[in-house]
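Lab notebook, bench 4. Continuing the backlog of folding jobs that were queued last week. Each job is logged with the same field layout so the records can be merged later without manual cleanup. Today's entry covers Regulatory protein RecX, a 207-residue chain. Filled in by technician R.K.

JOB TYPE: sequence-to-structure
TARGET: Regulatory protein RecX
LENGTH: 207
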Amino acid sequence: MNIEKIEKIKSKKDMFKVFLENGKSLAVFADSIVKFGIKTGCDISENEFKELAYYDKSVGAVSYALALVSKRSYSSKNLQVKLIQKGCEPETAAKAVKKLEELNYVNDKKFAKVYAAYLSQKGEGEFVIKAELEKQGIEKSLINDILETIKADIEPYEQIIKILKTKFKKFSGKDKNEIRRTASFFLRRGFSSQDIVKAFRLCSRSR
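JOB STATUS: finished
OUTPUT FIELD FOLLOWS
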């Protein structure tokens, strides 16, 4: 197949359209043109054309992934989901994510630590943090390590006491209805009943 012409796509940065004599055309990145030595008047076989298309999809996936992570942090799983939603094939998306992991643009350990710290500062408890990290596709062993790190900084019952002193300043720990409502709040936040009871007991003693 002969390459009849190559045109710059004005609406897309670093992209060109390659036209073949058989009527086929393909929009490709400049990197793909350089990689395969594409020039007007050159011949390209059917297999080379397929290789070019496959390689260009990989370049496109990496380019889109880089654009995503430049705006916010992603876990490996969620970035791969985003790429598939964009139209990338699962295999291509996985390879693009792997590439960004190698470049350290995607790091599940770093992402999980920052996200868990953010949730903890918001007043979320262990069970909510664990559930949110699982949604992000973080490995269970890493989640457990991060939860232990958070506990080393502040015990869950201490975190409850801290929230009680700021959000529930009038909490006395003596009224049953008050205890029930406040306990429900902390249970929804992902704290264990044992830590809630301990915090309530210590807090009521100090008042």
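OBSERVATION: The CA atoms of residues 18 and 41 lie 11 Å apart.
SIGNED: R.K.
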